[in-house]
Specification:
The complex is a heterotrimer of chains A (409), B (188) and C (549).
Chain A lengths: L4 H37 L22 H11 L10 H18 L8 E2 L3 E2 L4 E2 L3 E2 L9 H23 L2 H32 L4 H11 L3 H4 L1 H14 L11 H4 L9 H26 L17 H26 L7 H27 L1 H11 L2 H21 L16
Antiparallel strand pairs in A: 1-4, 2-3
Helix pairs in contact in A: 1-2, 1-10, 2-10, 3-4, 3-10, 4-5, 5-8, 5-12, 8-10, 8-12, 10-11, 12-14
Chain B lengths: L17 H4 L2 H16 L24 E3 L14 H5 L5 E7 L7 E9 L8 H5 L5 E3 L14 E2 L1 H11 L6 H8 L12
Antiparallel strand pairs in B: 1-4, 2-3, 3-5
Chain C lengths: L1 E5 L2 E5 L7 H7 L23 E7 L6 E3 L4 E2 L9 E4 L3 H16 L15 H9 L15 E3 L4 E4 L8 H10 L4 E4 L6 E4 L12 H5 L5 E3 L12 E6 L8 E7 L2 E7 L12 H4 L15 E4 L2 E4 L2 H18 L1 E6 L5 H14 L4 E4 L9 E2 L5 E2 L7 H9 L6 E2 H9 L3 E7 L9 H7 L4 E6 L4 H5 L2 E4 L8 E4 L4 E5 L12 H8 L8 H11 L15 E2 L2 H13 L3
Parallel strand pairs in C: 1-6, 17-18, 17-22, 18-21, 22-23, 23-24
Antiparallel strand pairs in C: 1-2, 3-4, 3-5, 3-6, 7-8, 8-11, 9-10, 12-13, 13-14, 15-16, 15-24, 19-20, 25-26, 26-27
The chains are: A mainly alpha (409), B alpha+beta (188), C alpha+beta (549).
Amino acid sequence: MQHSMTYIAVEALVKIALLAFIMMTAAAYLVLLERWVAAWVQDRRGPNRVGVPLTKIKLFGLGQPLADGLKFIFKEEFTPKHVDRWLYTLAPLSILAAALASFAVIPMGSSLPPIHIPALGLETDRIELVEAPSLDVGLVYVFALSSMAVYGVILGGWASNNKYSLLGGLRSSAQLIAYEIPLGLGILGVVLASGSLRLETICTDQATSGVWNIVWQPLGFLVFFVAALAESARLPFDLPECEQELIGGYHTEYAGMRLLLYLVAEFLHMVVAAFLIVILYFGGWHLWGLTGSESDPGWGHALARVAVLSLKTLAVIVLVMLVRWSWPRFRFDQLMTLAWKVMLPLGLVNLVLVAVLYEPELGGRMVAEYGAWTRAALGWGVMLAACAVAALTAPLATDNRPRLDWGVR
Amino acid sequence: MQTNDPSITWVEEPRLGLAGKMYLPLIVQGLTTTARHLVSKKVTVSFPEERPQIGNPLIYRGVHRLNKDEQGRVKCVACFLCATACPAHCIDIIGIESPWPDREKYPESFTIDELRCIFCGMCEEACPVDAIELTSLFDLTGRSREEMIFDKEKLLSVYDQTKDAEPTQTAQLAAEAPALPPSSGGAS
Amino acid sequence: MGTVLVNGVEVEVADDERLNGIQAAARAGVDIPRYCWHPGLSVVASCRMCLVETGTRNAETGAISMMPKLVPACQTPAKAGTVFVTESDAVKKARAMVEEDLLIDHPIDCPICDKAGECYLQDYHFEHGQKERRADIRPFTSRRRDLGPTVTLFVDRCVMCSRCVRFGREVAGTSELLVINRGSDEEIDVLPGFPLENKLSGNVVDLCPVGALGDKDFLYQQRVWFMKRHRQVCTHCATGCSIWTEENQDHVYRVRPRENPHVNQWWMCDIGRYGFHYVHDAARLVGAERRDGNSYKPIEWTEATAELGPKFDEQAKRGRLAAVLSPFLTVEEAFLLARWIRARDVDAMLAVGPVPVEGDDERFKSGFTIRAERCPNRKGIEAIVRHPRGELATWEDVLVEADAGRLAGVWITGGYPKPWVDEAAAGKLADVPLVVVQDLFGSPLWEIATYRLPGTAFAEREGSYVNANHRLQSVDWAVRPPAGARVEGSVYWQLLGMPGLYKSRRVLDDLAATIAYFAPAAEIVPETGVQLDAAAAQVSAAPLLASGS
């Protein structure tokens, strides 16, 4: 069915509006979740007082995000005298825009059946649950936008005209650039396996085969997960803002709405990372026996897919939040060592492994002769072996004593 | 100080086995601990609805009180030692000649800025006549800064409010050792 | 020239010097504890706290022969070859014993004693006393005895050093205080009908090494360790005693003499000692005002300093300008104002403000003098007024000129602690079109002023005063002026458009370079001041010095 440009534009705009609204709300509630998890892990109860305004209904504190948002809005919009005004405002905007734009290629499910509501004169085509359907370079696009985040951070640090902010910004840019490489290597394995950069295709592939990528490529998952944590600056990789050393890092000088933009963007990065982890390694919207694997699902399957994807993503987010309370922050040299001396080689190993496994002459024949389990076994075996090798070379030393023999060398 | 200064004692890190160096088992261990706490019993006291249990009210450091002697007069002799000891400079005293024959000096005004106070208890330590003490009252609120500057009357009323539950240190000592004659003990 | 040996350290003593053991030890950096000895009083050697071992060194052989017993250092002359040992076990034991004896009957009421914190007994007990008190007597209160209008005695705190008694006999010459009874019943007292009420009575409180003598003016006001002291000069008479102004949180609590052999030695009079209260008088003027018809409108200081220059420039075209320099101003302030008014009108009239005089000079037995001239700086102001023409105009001259209508603008500085101008004088100035008055308290003059600028008192000023003996002494400011009042010097500094904050030392440099009289002040002014007119000093200071120790 051919549609007018108006239809296409309206469809896109409706999707964008809905997505932006959902994501901003989700970010707000994720802050609440973060505070809850933080409290629970520390044997506290967490925010549980704010409910419906002007009443005594507390609703377990579900009104907290509203109160937090209002607080930020009513805070003084203070701009320090010494900042570069343009960049100071531009930096949080750019980082938030990049974070929101990443969602354009992320499928929120597969697709909805056509909607016919004659009363409203509404008649739609099958609705793809992604803002920019059939974008062939989906992953490259996400990758490009995540690199844009560096600008927001380093511009914020530079515009603040404060040495702590600048240090935070520099650290952050070094970290983000360093971890782009393992991130890319992690993705590359999946892309190689499915032969496409489209996230929908990667999803559908896993659904069709019924086996998630994590089974084949645990090493790729490990590399990608660690890199994703670092890219979204979550503990134990939150060096850009580490309060104890940099009094907040690049957003030291920010307050009010501009700070809120930074904080929301940071959460959205985490959400994007969680979506990617689910889609790339955990089968996306697929769950055995619940979602089917057909390409044009009915309402039941379509909604089940949305729910499954959302729950999986939420689970990953909770995991990330738990990670925050499980490990202390890396030292900067350890952070860099981890990126260049551990994650990069591991990513390369994974890439080679995937290439070998999917090579028809080697991997193809092996699967044909001994069964598909050999591929999984090889994947896990290589991961353990690679980790063991990394451990034996022990690049992540905690001892940072100055080496006295350096002068002799 | 340089990091290779010989006076620094370096604590050797514990030796890890292969499993430890591989991080993965430790990661699982850490996550398990975190997850266990996620569902464990919470220690938070939901304050206005529940009241916290104060271990020993006699050594708790809450709102101050000014003790009275047997005749109901303020015990304070306006020596300023509490104000001297106070690290937050929250005690303000105006001393004048006392109207009583057995006392030389007494506070005409005695104010404590409870907002400035850090409840360290140094005033109680410094007091030579056990006139100022910290009580176990902790829920200290007010609607203005002025209201939180407690004057002599307010501090004396805290004494009336708490004297039964928390006897003064002098009373405690007397109760513990009734046999001691009054003139013994004490420093020169 | 002789050599005295103190704990093995050689100290040089000039032939014409007559030092005792305490003074010689001080030169070696050794502090010998003492209660009764004071450099300004006769030696009685009664407290026994300064007991030391002494002996002589044979000049030829170098052999030292010690005396078998301890002697009081205060009455042992330090001659060539004298040897003092102040830290031996015998000396330490003697000190601990004296401390113990003194404390047997001393009430332990340090928390309420005003001397606590600067008490010799406390300090020496910590330094030389025994760790524990063996006597089991614990008096907690002290009997009080009224000695006069200014001083009260806490009888039981007394250690019978008799410094106060000797002061009455040797310095004040009035001998009100005496020791009654004998032995352990000795007490300080006055005879019935003859209370301690000479004009130097406050000094006995400073002299008292313990808390026995209390200053009624300061009693219970403030603990001494809270106060910060500032070097100042008393402004109540032309003697210009060196003082410490002691304040806490911008409130002056007491004023005490600061040792200065050239001016006041160790003493000051009660007029100066208790005269500082006007600094915190509630009637002090605050807030600059400008006349607006028949009423006054408050103006900001910045506004006032911005428009006064143009206003005076305008008046200079219509007639002569004049500035009245009060003898309470520092020389720096007077110099800045003179410079400013002369910049408006080269021919401006400079005059010395009224010089308050009360009675005659009062001279005490030791030579200490309270001057009749009750202002600190007449000599300095006169030198500035005379520059460069040598003519000296007075307040009366200004009134005459003003009455004749020859003045177009007058700047009058006050700062007197007492009323100083009457209706008649103010009436003569009423017709001058521009009158700026800087003063502490309201007066008839204040009522006719075009601009009212609240001034400051001595404790708030920094600068220098020249006393009756031509001795220039520089002072620091002690407290900040009340909100709304500004230090005169900083106002003139701003009027002249000088950069930064008012710094009196910079002005004094200028002054020393400009006016020959002030040339000796070009160097750093020591704490005891600098003599501007050497010839005058020798004549008038001679008797004062001769009576010293």
